[in-house]
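thread from #wetlab-drylab

HS: before we spend reagent money on co-crystallization trials with fructose -6-phosphate, can we at least see a predicted complex? here's what I'd submit
DV: go for it
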Amino acid sequence: MCGIIGYTGSENVRDVLLDALELLEYRGYDSAGIAVKDQETKQTAVYKCAGRVSDLRAICGSETTAAGCGIGHTRWATHGGVNDRNAHPHQVGKVTLVHNGIIENYRELIADYDLAGELQSETDSEVVAALLNHFYEGNPKEALKKTVSKLRGTFALVVLFADQGDVIYSTRNVSPIVATLCDEGAMLASDLTALCRFTNRYFVVPEYHILELHSDKLVLSDFDGNIVEPEYLTADWELNSAGKNGYPFYMEKEIMEQPEAIENTIANRIKGGLPDFSADNVPDTLFTDCERITIIACGTAMHAGLVAQALVKSILHMHIDVEMASEFMYSDPVIDEKTLVIAVSQSGETIDTLEAVKYAKRRGAKCLSIINVKGSSIARESDYVLYTNAGPEIAVASTKAYTTQLAVFYLIVAKMAWSRGIFTTEETQSFVRELQRTPEVMKQVLEHRRDIHLVAKRVLAAKDLFMIGRGLDYSILLEGSLKLKEVSYIHSEAYASGELKHGPIALITQDTPVIAAVTQEKLMSKELSNIKEVKSRGADVVVFIKETIAGSLEGEYEVFELPNMQDEFMVMPASVALQLLAYYVSSDKGFDVDKPRNLAKVVTVE
Ligand code: F6R
Protein backbone atom coordinates (compact mmCIF):
# COMPACT_ATOMS: atom_id res chain seq x y z
CA MET A 1 0.00 0.00 0.00
CA CYS A 2 1.05 3.65 -0.35
CA GLY A 3 2.53 4.90 -3.57
CA ILE A 4 6.08 6.22 -3.71
CA ILE A 5 7.96 8.17 -6.37
CA GLY A 6 11.44 9.67 -6.44
CA TYR A 7 12.97 11.60 -9.33
CA THR A 8 16.17 13.47 -10.06
CA GLY A 9 16.83 14.73 -13.57
CA SER A 10 16.23 17.31 -16.25
CA GLU A 11 12.41 17.51 -16.20
CA ASN A 12 10.25 19.78 -14.05
CA VAL A 13 10.30 17.74 -10.89
CA ARG A 14 6.97 18.96 -9.55
CA ASP A 15 5.17 17.85 -12.68
CA VAL A 16 6.97 14.50 -12.80
CA LEU A 17 6.09 13.80 -9.17
CA LEU A 18 2.45 14.87 -9.37
CA ASP A 19 1.83 13.01 -12.64
CA ALA A 20 3.41 9.88 -11.17
CA LEU A 21 1.38 10.17 -7.97
CA GLU A 22 -1.80 10.31 -10.02
CA LEU A 23 -0.83 6.99 -11.59
CA LEU A 24 0.08 5.58 -8.20
CA GLU A 25 -3.03 6.82 -6.45
CA TYR A 26 -4.57 3.35 -6.71
CA ARG A 27 -2.17 2.25 -3.97
CA GLY A 28 -3.77 4.59 -1.45
CA TYR A 29 -5.59 7.87 -1.75
CA ASP A 30 -6.33 9.38 1.60
CA SER A 31 -3.45 11.89 1.54
CA ALA A 32 -0.62 12.92 -0.72
CA GLY A 33 2.58 14.91 -0.57
CA ILE A 34 5.79 15.86 -2.32
CA ALA A 35 9.15 17.29 -1.26
CA VAL A 36 11.27 19.15 -3.80
CA LYS A 37 14.76 20.54 -3.54
CA ASP A 38 14.84 24.12 -4.70
CA GLN A 39 17.69 24.63 -7.13
CA GLU A 40 18.40 28.19 -5.99
CA THR A 41 17.89 28.13 -2.23
CA LYS A 42 18.92 24.46 -1.84
CA GLN A 43 16.07 24.14 0.68
CA THR A 44 13.73 21.14 0.66
CA ALA A 45 10.13 22.34 0.46
CA VAL A 46 7.34 19.98 1.55
CA TYR A 47 3.75 20.21 0.25
CA LYS A 48 1.25 17.75 1.68
CA CYS A 49 -2.40 17.42 2.56
CA ALA A 50 -5.18 14.99 3.36
CA GLY A 51 -7.17 14.23 0.21
CA ARG A 52 -6.40 13.32 -3.35
CA VAL A 53 -3.48 14.17 -5.60
CA SER A 54 -5.76 16.76 -7.23
CA ASP A 55 -5.93 18.54 -3.84
CA LEU A 56 -2.16 18.37 -3.57
CA ARG A 57 -1.81 19.82 -7.07
CA ALA A 58 -3.95 22.76 -5.99
CA ILE A 59 -1.77 23.56 -2.96
CA CYS A 60 1.47 23.18 -4.92
CA GLY A 61 0.13 25.76 -7.39
CA SER A 62 2.61 27.41 -9.68
CA GLU A 63 4.61 28.90 -6.83
CA THR A 64 6.79 25.83 -6.51
CA THR A 65 9.87 26.56 -8.52
CA ALA A 66 10.88 23.94 -11.02
CA ALA A 67 13.64 21.84 -9.57
CA GLY A 68 15.54 18.74 -10.46
CA CYS A 69 15.05 16.48 -7.47
CA GLY A 70 12.17 15.37 -5.30
CA ILE A 71 10.14 12.58 -3.69
CA GLY A 72 6.41 11.97 -3.38
CA HIS A 73 3.87 9.74 -1.66
CA THR A 74 0.18 8.80 -1.70
CA ARG A 75 -1.00 7.37 1.59
CA TRP A 76 -3.24 4.55 2.77
CA ALA A 77 -3.44 5.23 6.48
CA THR A 78 -2.18 2.60 8.92
CA HIS A 79 -0.78 4.43 11.97
CA GLY A 80 -2.57 7.68 12.62
CA GLY A 81 -5.72 9.20 11.14
CA VAL A 82 -6.16 10.92 7.83
CA ASN A 83 -4.97 14.50 8.21
CA ASP A 84 -2.36 16.90 6.85
CA ARG A 85 0.15 16.19 9.61
CA ASN A 86 0.15 12.45 9.04
CA ALA A 87 0.62 12.81 5.30
CA HIS A 88 4.13 12.13 3.94
CA PRO A 89 6.84 13.34 3.37
CA HIS A 90 8.00 13.70 6.97
CA GLN A 91 10.78 16.13 7.70
CA VAL A 92 12.97 15.91 10.81
CA GLY A 93 16.20 17.93 10.90
CA LYS A 94 18.20 17.20 7.77
CA VAL A 95 16.03 14.26 6.75
CA THR A 96 12.96 14.30 4.51
CA LEU A 97 11.43 10.86 4.08
CA VAL A 98 8.55 8.87 2.58
CA HIS A 99 7.78 5.36 3.74
CA ASN A 100 5.65 2.41 2.68
CA GLY A 101 5.17 -0.43 5.15
CA ILE A 102 4.72 -0.83 8.88
CA ILE A 103 7.30 -0.31 11.62
CA GLU A 104 6.25 -2.63 14.43
CA ASN A 105 8.65 -1.34 17.10
CA TYR A 106 8.11 2.38 16.60
CA ARG A 107 7.06 2.89 20.24
CA GLU A 108 10.27 1.30 21.57
CA LEU A 109 12.30 3.42 19.15
CA ILE A 110 10.69 6.63 20.42
CA ALA A 111 11.54 5.65 24.00
CA ASP A 112 15.03 4.23 23.35
CA TYR A 113 16.23 7.24 21.34
CA ASP A 114 14.15 9.89 23.10
CA LEU A 115 12.48 10.98 19.88
CA ALA A 116 9.11 12.15 21.23
CA GLY A 117 10.06 15.83 21.15
CA GLU A 118 10.87 15.64 17.45
CA LEU A 119 7.54 14.22 16.30
CA GLN A 120 4.63 16.18 14.90
CA SER A 121 2.49 13.31 13.59
CA GLU A 122 1.06 10.02 14.89
CA THR A 123 2.82 7.94 12.25
CA ASP A 124 5.41 5.20 12.57
CA SER A 125 7.05 6.69 9.47
CA GLU A 126 7.99 9.95 11.14
CA VAL A 127 9.77 7.94 13.84
CA VAL A 128 12.00 6.51 11.10
CA ALA A 129 12.74 10.03 9.85
CA ALA A 130 13.64 11.10 13.39
CA LEU A 131 15.84 8.04 13.96
CA LEU A 132 17.60 8.56 10.65
CA ASN A 133 18.22 12.19 11.56
CA HIS A 134 19.54 11.03 14.95
CA PHE A 135 22.12 8.78 13.29
CA TYR A 136 22.99 11.15 10.43
CA GLU A 137 26.45 12.69 10.69
CA GLY A 138 27.02 13.51 7.02
CA ASN A 139 27.19 9.93 5.73
CA PRO A 140 23.78 8.87 4.34
CA LYS A 141 24.66 5.21 3.87
CA GLU A 142 25.97 4.78 7.40
CA ALA A 143 22.88 6.48 8.81
CA LEU A 144 20.60 4.28 6.72
CA LYS A 145 22.40 1.13 7.80
CA LYS A 146 22.24 2.05 11.48
CA THR A 147 18.57 2.98 11.21
CA VAL A 148 17.57 -0.15 9.35
CA SER A 149 19.37 -2.31 11.92
CA LYS A 150 16.96 -0.95 14.54
CA LEU A 151 13.73 -1.38 12.56
CA ARG A 152 11.32 -4.28 12.96
CA GLY A 153 8.69 -4.55 10.23
CA THR A 154 8.34 -3.85 6.56
CA PHE A 155 9.59 -0.75 4.84
CA ALA A 156 10.45 0.96 1.60
CA LEU A 157 12.25 4.18 2.58
CA VAL A 158 13.05 7.00 0.20
CA VAL A 159 15.07 9.88 1.62
CA LEU A 160 16.42 13.31 0.80
CA PHE A 161 19.25 14.62 3.00
CA ALA A 162 19.39 18.42 3.20
CA ASP A 163 23.13 18.60 2.50
CA GLN A 164 23.45 15.90 -0.18
CA GLY A 165 22.53 17.90 -3.28
CA ASP A 166 20.15 16.33 -5.77
CA VAL A 167 20.72 12.77 -4.62
CA ILE A 168 17.91 10.44 -3.47
CA TYR A 169 18.60 7.46 -1.18
CA SER A 170 16.48 4.39 -0.77
CA THR A 171 16.45 1.04 1.01
CA ARG A 172 13.79 -1.57 1.67
CA ASN A 173 12.60 -4.74 3.36
CA VAL A 174 9.60 -6.59 1.83
CA SER A 175 7.81 -3.44 0.57
CA PRO A 176 8.81 -3.07 -3.08
CA ILE A 177 10.82 -0.41 -4.87
CA VAL A 178 11.60 -0.45 -8.58
CA ALA A 179 14.04 1.94 -10.25
CA THR A 180 15.44 2.98 -13.60
CA LEU A 181 17.83 5.33 -15.34
CA CYS A 182 16.50 6.85 -18.55
CA ASP A 183 17.07 9.86 -20.81
CA GLU A 184 15.15 12.17 -18.46
CA GLY A 185 17.08 11.18 -15.35
CA ALA A 186 16.90 8.57 -12.58
CA MET A 187 13.70 7.54 -10.87
CA LEU A 188 12.28 5.04 -8.45
CA ALA A 189 8.74 4.09 -7.50
CA SER A 190 6.69 1.66 -5.48
CA ASP A 191 5.64 0.07 -8.76
CA LEU A 192 6.23 0.06 -12.44
CA THR A 193 3.09 1.97 -13.37
CA ALA A 194 4.77 5.23 -12.44
CA LEU A 195 7.84 4.55 -14.59
CA CYS A 196 5.98 3.30 -17.67
CA ARG A 197 5.61 6.79 -19.09
CA PHE A 198 9.39 7.09 -19.39
CA THR A 199 10.71 3.61 -20.02
CA ASN A 200 9.86 -0.07 -19.90
CA ARG A 201 13.30 -1.02 -18.50
CA TYR A 202 13.49 -1.27 -14.75
CA PHE A 203 14.95 -3.29 -11.92
CA VAL A 204 13.69 -4.34 -8.52
CA VAL A 205 15.82 -2.93 -5.72
CA PRO A 206 16.99 -5.94 -3.69
CA GLU A 207 16.11 -6.03 0.00
CA TYR A 208 18.67 -4.59 2.42
CA HIS A 209 20.61 -2.75 -0.28
CA ILE A 210 21.07 0.98 -0.68
CA LEU A 211 20.20 2.75 -3.91
CA GLU A 212 21.56 6.22 -4.71
CA LEU A 213 19.84 8.11 -7.49
CA HIS A 214 21.83 10.85 -9.24
CA SER A 215 20.46 12.68 -12.27
CA ASP A 216 22.87 10.82 -14.55
CA LYS A 217 23.62 7.59 -12.72
CA LEU A 218 22.39 5.01 -10.22
CA VAL A 219 24.56 3.40 -7.58
CA LEU A 220 23.34 0.20 -5.96
CA SER A 221 25.33 -1.28 -3.09
CA ASP A 222 24.85 -3.89 -0.40
CA PHE A 223 25.14 -3.09 3.29
CA ASP A 224 28.83 -4.01 3.25
CA GLY A 225 29.46 -1.32 0.66
CA ASN A 226 29.96 -3.66 -2.31
CA ILE A 227 28.67 -2.26 -5.59
CA VAL A 228 25.94 -4.45 -7.10
CA GLU A 229 24.92 -4.49 -10.78
CA PRO A 230 21.16 -3.93 -11.10
CA GLU A 231 19.34 -6.76 -12.87
CA TYR A 232 17.21 -4.97 -15.41
CA LEU A 233 13.86 -6.40 -16.58
CA THR A 234 11.77 -5.33 -19.54
CA ALA A 235 8.07 -4.74 -18.99
CA ASP A 236 6.03 -5.84 -21.97
CA TRP A 237 3.46 -3.19 -21.10
CA GLU A 238 3.12 -0.42 -23.64
CA LEU A 239 4.54 2.82 -22.37
CA ASN A 240 1.22 4.61 -22.43
CA SER A 241 -1.01 1.69 -21.55
CA ALA A 242 -1.50 3.12 -18.08
CA GLY A 243 -3.74 5.92 -19.46
CA LYS A 244 -7.56 5.87 -19.58
CA ASN A 245 -7.65 5.87 -23.36
CA GLY A 246 -10.83 7.95 -23.60
CA TYR A 247 -12.83 5.95 -21.03
CA PRO A 248 -14.24 7.82 -18.03
CA PHE A 249 -12.81 5.21 -15.65
CA TYR A 250 -10.02 2.66 -15.73
CA MET A 251 -12.47 -0.02 -14.64
CA GLU A 252 -14.47 0.36 -17.85
CA LYS A 253 -11.32 0.45 -19.95
CA GLU A 254 -10.00 -2.68 -18.27
CA ILE A 255 -13.31 -4.54 -18.66
CA MET A 256 -13.26 -3.66 -22.36
CA GLU A 257 -9.65 -4.82 -22.73
CA GLN A 258 -10.42 -8.37 -21.67
CA PRO A 259 -10.70 -10.06 -25.08
CA GLU A 260 -7.23 -8.80 -25.97
CA ALA A 261 -5.85 -9.59 -22.53
CA ILE A 262 -7.05 -13.21 -22.76
CA GLU A 263 -5.49 -13.47 -26.20
CA ASN A 264 -2.16 -12.20 -24.81
CA THR A 265 -2.36 -14.65 -21.93
CA ILE A 266 -3.02 -17.79 -23.93
CA ALA A 267 -1.58 -17.25 -27.43
CA ASN A 268 2.03 -18.18 -26.68
CA ARG A 269 1.05 -21.06 -24.44
CA ILE A 270 -0.72 -23.14 -27.06
CA LYS A 271 1.35 -25.24 -29.49
CA GLY A 272 -0.30 -27.60 -31.96
CA GLY A 273 -3.59 -26.96 -30.19
CA LEU A 274 -2.16 -28.19 -26.87
CA PRO A 275 -1.15 -26.32 -23.70
CA ASP A 276 2.56 -25.65 -23.56
CA PHE A 277 4.45 -23.94 -20.75
CA SER A 278 7.94 -24.54 -22.07
CA ALA A 279 8.51 -20.83 -22.77
CA ASP A 280 7.71 -20.21 -19.09
CA ASN A 281 10.27 -22.86 -18.06
CA VAL A 282 7.60 -24.78 -16.18
CA PRO A 283 8.41 -28.51 -16.43
CA ASP A 284 5.65 -31.04 -17.11
CA THR A 285 6.75 -33.00 -14.02
CA LEU A 286 5.36 -30.21 -11.87
CA PHE A 287 1.91 -31.30 -13.00
CA THR A 288 2.45 -35.06 -13.12
CA ASP A 289 4.33 -35.55 -9.84
CA CYS A 290 2.01 -33.76 -7.42
CA GLU A 291 -0.64 -35.58 -5.42
CA ARG A 292 -2.66 -32.60 -4.26
CA ILE A 293 -3.06 -28.94 -5.10
CA THR A 294 -3.41 -25.98 -2.76
CA ILE A 295 -4.32 -22.58 -4.12
CA ILE A 296 -3.46 -19.55 -1.99
CA ALA A 297 -4.70 -16.07 -2.79
CA CYS A 298 -6.82 -13.19 -1.53
CA GLY A 299 -10.02 -11.53 -2.69
CA THR A 300 -10.70 -11.72 -6.39
CA ALA A 301 -7.61 -13.84 -7.02
CA MET A 302 -8.96 -16.33 -4.47
CA HIS A 303 -12.25 -16.39 -6.35
CA ALA A 304 -10.34 -17.36 -9.49
CA GLY A 305 -8.95 -20.19 -7.37
CA LEU A 306 -12.47 -21.33 -6.49
CA VAL A 307 -13.35 -21.68 -10.17
CA ALA A 308 -10.15 -23.67 -10.66
CA GLN A 309 -11.11 -25.87 -7.71
CA ALA A 310 -14.44 -26.76 -9.33
CA LEU A 311 -12.66 -27.61 -12.60
CA VAL A 312 -9.94 -29.66 -10.92
CA LYS A 313 -12.51 -31.66 -8.97
CA SER A 314 -14.79 -32.37 -11.90
CA ILE A 315 -12.11 -32.95 -14.56
CA LEU A 316 -9.04 -34.21 -12.68
CA HIS A 317 -10.79 -35.75 -9.65
CA MET A 318 -7.88 -34.56 -7.52
CA HIS A 319 -7.72 -33.27 -3.98
CA ILE A 320 -7.59 -29.49 -4.09
CA ASP A 321 -7.86 -26.86 -1.36
CA VAL A 322 -8.36 -23.16 -1.86
CA GLU A 323 -7.04 -21.18 1.08
CA MET A 324 -7.42 -17.52 1.91
CA ALA A 325 -3.78 -16.50 2.17
CA SER A 326 -4.50 -14.47 5.30
CA GLU A 327 -5.71 -17.61 7.11
CA PHE A 328 -3.39 -20.15 5.53
CA MET A 329 -0.46 -20.16 7.95
CA TYR A 330 -2.67 -20.20 11.01
CA SER A 331 -4.82 -23.12 9.90
CA ASP A 332 -2.26 -25.95 10.07
CA PRO A 333 -2.53 -26.60 6.34
CA VAL A 334 -1.74 -30.05 4.99
CA ILE A 335 1.27 -29.21 2.84
CA ASP A 336 4.21 -31.38 1.90
CA GLU A 337 6.61 -32.05 -0.96
CA LYS A 338 3.81 -33.76 -2.91
CA THR A 339 1.68 -30.60 -2.81
CA LEU A 340 1.65 -28.24 -5.74
CA VAL A 341 0.99 -24.81 -4.30
CA ILE A 342 -0.44 -22.30 -6.76
CA ALA A 343 -0.31 -18.68 -5.59
CA VAL A 344 -2.50 -16.23 -7.49
CA SER A 345 -1.97 -12.48 -7.39
CA GLN A 346 -2.40 -9.58 -9.77
CA SER A 347 0.11 -7.32 -8.04
CA GLY A 348 2.46 -10.06 -6.90
CA GLU A 349 2.90 -7.99 -3.73
CA THR A 350 -0.02 -9.00 -1.47
CA ILE A 351 1.78 -9.60 1.79
CA ASP A 352 -0.48 -12.43 3.01
CA THR A 353 0.01 -14.34 -0.23
CA LEU A 354 3.75 -13.69 -0.16
CA GLU A 355 4.07 -14.94 3.42
CA ALA A 356 1.91 -17.99 2.59
CA VAL A 357 4.25 -18.86 -0.31
CA LYS A 358 7.29 -18.63 1.98
CA TYR A 359 5.55 -20.84 4.52
CA ALA A 360 4.57 -23.47 1.91
CA LYS A 361 8.11 -23.57 0.58
CA ARG A 362 9.47 -24.11 4.08
CA ARG A 363 7.13 -27.12 4.27
CA GLY A 364 8.69 -28.58 1.12
CA ALA A 365 5.98 -27.70 -1.43
CA LYS A 366 6.81 -26.53 -4.94
CA CYS A 367 5.23 -23.18 -5.70
CA LEU A 368 3.88 -22.03 -9.04
CA SER A 369 2.50 -18.52 -9.13
CA ILE A 370 0.05 -16.84 -11.49
CA ILE A 371 1.00 -13.17 -11.47
CA ASN A 372 0.42 -10.06 -13.52
CA VAL A 373 3.29 -7.82 -12.46
CA LYS A 374 6.65 -9.02 -13.73
CA GLY A 375 9.45 -9.32 -11.21
CA SER A 376 7.11 -8.72 -8.25
CA SER A 377 7.90 -10.17 -4.82
CA ILE A 378 5.67 -13.27 -5.09
CA ALA A 379 7.01 -13.98 -8.58
CA ARG A 380 10.55 -13.84 -7.24
CA GLU A 381 9.73 -16.02 -4.25
CA SER A 382 8.05 -18.73 -6.36
CA ASP A 383 9.72 -21.72 -8.00
CA TYR A 384 7.85 -21.09 -11.26
CA VAL A 385 5.76 -18.23 -12.63
CA LEU A 386 3.05 -17.97 -15.25
CA TYR A 387 2.50 -14.29 -16.03
CA THR A 388 -1.02 -13.29 -17.02
CA ASN A 389 0.11 -10.58 -19.47
CA ALA A 390 -3.01 -8.51 -18.80
CA GLY A 391 -1.11 -5.20 -18.90
CA PRO A 392 -1.38 -2.63 -16.11
CA GLU A 393 -4.55 -2.92 -14.03
CA ILE A 394 -5.13 0.46 -12.42
CA ALA A 395 -8.75 0.37 -11.21
CA VAL A 396 -8.78 -0.88 -7.64
CA ALA A 397 -11.50 -3.41 -8.51
CA SER A 398 -9.84 -6.25 -10.36
CA THR A 399 -11.39 -7.29 -13.69
CA LYS A 400 -9.02 -8.30 -16.47
CA ALA A 401 -6.57 -9.75 -13.96
CA TYR A 402 -9.31 -12.15 -12.78
CA THR A 403 -10.32 -13.42 -16.21
CA THR A 404 -6.70 -13.82 -17.31
CA GLN A 405 -6.02 -15.78 -14.11
CA LEU A 406 -8.94 -18.01 -15.10
CA ALA A 407 -7.48 -18.43 -18.59
CA VAL A 408 -4.20 -19.65 -17.08
CA PHE A 409 -6.11 -22.07 -14.88
CA TYR A 410 -7.94 -23.52 -17.92
CA LEU A 411 -4.55 -24.14 -19.52
CA ILE A 412 -3.21 -25.76 -16.36
CA VAL A 413 -6.25 -28.03 -16.08
CA ALA A 414 -5.92 -28.99 -19.76
CA LYS A 415 -2.22 -29.67 -19.28
CA MET A 416 -2.80 -31.82 -16.22
CA ALA A 417 -5.70 -33.73 -17.77
CA TRP A 418 -3.59 -34.48 -20.84
CA SER A 419 -0.32 -35.32 -19.09
CA ARG A 420 -2.14 -37.57 -16.61
CA GLY A 421 -3.98 -39.41 -19.37
CA ILE A 422 -7.43 -38.16 -18.33
CA PHE A 423 -7.96 -36.35 -21.64
CA THR A 424 -6.87 -37.83 -24.97
CA THR A 425 -4.91 -35.51 -27.25
CA GLU A 426 -8.11 -34.80 -29.20
CA GLU A 427 -10.09 -34.05 -26.04
CA THR A 428 -7.34 -31.71 -24.86
CA GLN A 429 -7.32 -29.91 -28.20
CA SER A 430 -11.08 -29.56 -28.12
CA PHE A 431 -10.93 -28.10 -24.56
CA VAL A 432 -8.22 -25.64 -25.64
CA ARG A 433 -10.23 -24.67 -28.75
CA GLU A 434 -13.13 -23.71 -26.50
CA LEU A 435 -10.78 -21.54 -24.43
CA GLN A 436 -9.61 -19.88 -27.65
CA ARG A 437 -13.22 -18.86 -28.37
CA THR A 438 -13.31 -16.84 -25.16
CA PRO A 439 -12.17 -13.47 -26.59
CA GLU A 440 -14.88 -13.62 -29.29
CA VAL A 441 -17.56 -14.59 -26.80
CA MET A 442 -16.49 -11.84 -24.39
CA LYS A 443 -16.76 -9.33 -27.23
CA GLN A 444 -20.40 -10.37 -27.70
CA VAL A 445 -21.15 -9.57 -24.05
CA LEU A 446 -19.33 -6.24 -24.34
CA GLU A 447 -21.35 -5.33 -27.43
CA HIS A 448 -24.52 -5.73 -25.36
CA ARG A 449 -23.29 -3.64 -22.47
CA ARG A 450 -26.18 -1.17 -22.84
CA ASP A 451 -28.58 -3.99 -21.88
CA ILE A 452 -26.54 -4.63 -18.76
CA HIS A 453 -26.66 -0.92 -18.01
CA LEU A 454 -30.47 -1.19 -18.02
CA VAL A 455 -30.28 -4.17 -15.65
CA ALA A 456 -28.02 -2.08 -13.39
CA LYS A 457 -30.70 0.60 -13.08
CA ARG A 458 -33.00 -1.96 -11.47
CA VAL A 459 -30.70 -2.49 -8.52
CA LEU A 460 -29.50 1.08 -8.05
CA ALA A 461 -31.77 1.77 -5.09
CA ALA A 462 -31.10 -1.50 -3.29
CA LYS A 463 -29.47 -1.50 0.15
CA ASP A 464 -29.12 -5.28 0.26
CA LEU A 465 -28.98 -7.77 -2.57
CA PHE A 466 -28.51 -11.51 -2.99
CA MET A 467 -26.79 -13.42 -5.76
CA ILE A 468 -27.70 -17.07 -6.15
CA GLY A 469 -26.40 -19.93 -8.25
CA ARG A 470 -25.21 -23.51 -8.10
CA GLY A 471 -21.87 -25.16 -8.86
CA LEU A 472 -19.63 -22.99 -11.00
CA ASP A 473 -22.31 -20.31 -10.99
CA TYR A 474 -21.89 -19.96 -7.25
CA SER A 475 -18.13 -19.42 -7.66
CA ILE A 476 -18.74 -16.79 -10.34
CA LEU A 477 -21.27 -15.00 -8.15
CA LEU A 478 -18.91 -14.82 -5.19
CA GLU A 479 -16.74 -12.68 -7.42
CA GLY A 480 -19.69 -10.80 -8.94
CA SER A 481 -20.93 -9.99 -5.46
CA LEU A 482 -17.51 -8.80 -4.25
CA LYS A 483 -17.26 -6.57 -7.32
CA LEU A 484 -20.67 -5.04 -6.72
CA LYS A 485 -20.17 -4.36 -3.02
CA GLU A 486 -16.71 -2.86 -3.35
CA VAL A 487 -17.59 -0.32 -6.03
CA SER A 488 -21.28 0.39 -5.33
CA TYR A 489 -21.39 -0.01 -1.50
CA ILE A 490 -24.54 -2.13 -1.84
CA HIS A 491 -24.48 -4.94 0.67
CA SER A 492 -24.43 -8.01 -1.56
CA GLU A 493 -24.14 -11.67 -0.61
CA ALA A 494 -23.58 -14.61 -2.90
CA TYR A 495 -25.29 -17.81 -1.81
CA ALA A 496 -25.29 -21.32 -3.15
CA SER A 497 -28.97 -21.54 -4.14
CA GLY A 498 -29.52 -24.77 -2.22
CA GLU A 499 -28.44 -23.07 1.00
CA LEU A 500 -31.03 -20.32 0.80
CA LYS A 501 -33.71 -22.36 2.55
CA HIS A 502 -31.36 -22.98 5.46
CA GLY A 503 -31.58 -19.42 6.70
CA PRO A 504 -31.02 -16.50 4.36
CA ILE A 505 -34.37 -16.81 2.60
CA ALA A 506 -35.73 -15.08 5.72
CA LEU A 507 -34.14 -11.88 4.39
CA ILE A 508 -35.82 -11.99 0.99
CA THR A 509 -38.49 -9.28 0.57
CA GLN A 510 -39.57 -7.02 -2.23
CA ASP A 511 -36.74 -4.68 -1.22
CA THR A 512 -33.97 -7.24 -1.73
CA PRO A 513 -33.30 -7.79 -5.42
CA VAL A 514 -31.89 -11.19 -6.35
CA ILE A 515 -29.43 -11.79 -9.17
CA ALA A 516 -29.36 -15.38 -10.37
CA ALA A 517 -26.87 -17.05 -12.68
CA VAL A 518 -27.97 -20.07 -14.69
CA THR A 519 -25.19 -21.32 -16.93
CA GLN A 520 -24.78 -24.95 -15.90
CA GLU A 521 -27.16 -27.17 -17.86
CA LYS A 522 -27.10 -30.09 -15.46
CA LEU A 523 -28.06 -27.87 -12.52
CA MET A 524 -30.59 -25.81 -14.44
CA SER A 525 -33.87 -27.34 -13.29
CA LYS A 526 -32.98 -27.11 -9.58
CA GLU A 527 -31.76 -23.54 -10.05
CA LEU A 528 -34.96 -22.52 -11.82
CA SER A 529 -36.97 -23.82 -8.83
CA ASN A 530 -34.84 -21.73 -6.47
CA ILE A 531 -35.45 -18.68 -8.62
CA LYS A 532 -39.21 -19.26 -8.35
CA GLU A 533 -38.90 -19.54 -4.57
CA VAL A 534 -37.38 -16.09 -4.21
CA LYS A 535 -39.70 -14.61 -6.80
CA SER A 536 -42.73 -15.88 -4.91
CA ARG A 537 -41.43 -14.11 -1.80
CA GLY A 538 -41.58 -10.79 -3.60
CA ALA A 539 -37.98 -10.38 -4.79
CA ASP A 540 -37.25 -8.58 -8.04
CA VAL A 541 -35.16 -11.22 -9.83
CA VAL A 542 -32.60 -10.57 -12.57
CA VAL A 543 -31.41 -13.70 -14.36
CA PHE A 544 -28.14 -14.08 -16.24
CA ILE A 545 -28.76 -17.22 -18.26
CA LYS A 546 -26.94 -19.14 -20.98
CA GLU A 547 -28.79 -18.35 -24.21
CA THR A 548 -29.32 -21.97 -25.28
CA ILE A 549 -31.31 -22.70 -22.12
CA ALA A 550 -33.06 -19.35 -21.76
CA GLY A 551 -36.26 -20.84 -23.21
CA SER A 552 -36.67 -22.94 -20.04
CA LEU A 553 -37.18 -19.85 -17.90
CA GLU A 554 -40.88 -19.32 -17.29
CA GLY A 555 -42.30 -16.22 -15.63
CA GLU A 556 -41.53 -12.53 -15.58
CA TYR A 557 -37.93 -11.82 -14.99
CA GLU A 558 -35.39 -9.29 -16.17
CA VAL A 559 -33.18 -11.54 -18.29
CA PHE A 560 -29.73 -11.12 -19.79
CA GLU A 561 -28.78 -13.93 -22.15
CA LEU A 562 -25.14 -14.98 -22.06
CA PRO A 563 -23.55 -16.19 -25.28
CA ASN A 564 -23.14 -19.92 -25.46
CA MET A 565 -19.98 -21.79 -24.43
CA GLN A 566 -19.44 -25.23 -22.97
CA ASP A 567 -20.60 -25.19 -19.34
CA GLU A 568 -17.06 -25.20 -17.90
CA PHE A 569 -16.30 -21.98 -19.80
CA MET A 570 -19.49 -20.05 -19.08
CA VAL A 571 -17.55 -18.39 -16.25
CA MET A 572 -15.93 -16.15 -18.85
CA PRO A 573 -18.97 -14.43 -20.40
CA ALA A 574 -20.81 -14.43 -17.06
CA SER A 575 -17.91 -12.71 -15.28
CA VAL A 576 -17.75 -9.94 -17.85
CA ALA A 577 -21.51 -9.37 -17.49
CA LEU A 578 -21.26 -9.15 -13.69
CA GLN A 579 -18.28 -6.80 -13.86
CA LEU A 580 -20.27 -4.49 -16.15
CA LEU A 581 -23.21 -4.63 -13.77
CA ALA A 582 -21.04 -3.52 -10.83
CA TYR A 583 -19.41 -0.84 -12.96
CA TYR A 584 -22.69 0.70 -14.13
CA VAL A 585 -24.24 0.68 -10.67
CA SER A 586 -21.21 2.52 -9.30
CA SER A 587 -20.91 5.04 -12.12
CA ASP A 588 -24.68 5.72 -12.13
CA LYS A 589 -24.48 6.43 -8.43
CA GLY A 590 -21.80 8.99 -9.19
CA PHE A 591 -19.05 7.23 -7.25
CA ASP A 592 -15.34 7.38 -7.98
CA VAL A 593 -15.44 3.90 -9.54
CA ASP A 594 -11.69 3.43 -9.69
CA LYS A 595 -11.03 4.40 -6.08
CA PRO A 596 -13.64 2.91 -3.79
CA ARG A 597 -13.55 4.16 -0.22
CA ASN A 598 -11.12 2.53 2.22
CA LEU A 599 -9.53 0.30 -0.40
CA ALA A 600 -6.11 0.21 -2.04
CA LYS A 601 -4.94 -1.76 -5.01
CA VAL A 602 -1.89 -3.34 -3.47
CA VAL A 603 -2.31 -4.77 0.01
CA THR A 604 1.10 -4.85 1.62
CA VAL A 605 0.02 -4.88 5.25
CA GLU A 606 -1.25 -8.02 7.02
C1 F6R B 1 -11.06 -6.90 -5.60
C2 F6R B 1 -9.61 -6.96 -5.58
C3 F6R B 1 -8.96 -7.59 -4.41
C4 F6R B 1 -7.67 -8.29 -4.85
C5 F6R B 1 -6.91 -8.80 -3.62
C6 F6R B 1 -5.66 -9.56 -4.02
O1 F6R B 1 -11.51 -6.34 -6.80
O2 F6R B 1 -8.96 -6.47 -6.45
O3 F6R B 1 -9.81 -8.46 -3.74
O4 F6R B 1 -8.00 -9.35 -5.69
O5 F6R B 1 -6.55 -7.71 -2.83
O6 F6R B 1 -4.79 -8.76 -4.75
P1 F6R B 1 -3.65 -9.40 -5.65
O7 F6R B 1 -4.33 -10.12 -6.76
O8 F6R B 1 -2.85 -8.24 -6.12
O9 F6R B 1 -2.89 -10.33 -4.76
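DV: The chain has a mean pLDDT of 94.
HS: ok that's useful, forwarding to the group
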